[in-house]
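Render this sequence as a predicted structure.
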Amino acid sequence: MTKPHIDHTATGILLQKENGDILDAHGTTVPADGTAGYATGCLFRHTDGGDGTAIYVNEGTRTSADFNALNGA
């Protein structure tokens, strides 16, 4: 089960699982490969991304993220 988290602190976290894994986030910098704490399947909104680089998904693990752009093609 997830617990909603409203972004009042400018952390970029929009939704977290009860164990703390991030499910939904945003920011100007996409998390680096290998970053821990993002659930597999986490969506990241790149707020200054361009064409084909606005939405990313973590295809890695909770201990080693691998965010890849969803380009809609």
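Summary. The chain is about 0% helix and 40% strand. The two ends are 32 Å apart (CA to CA).
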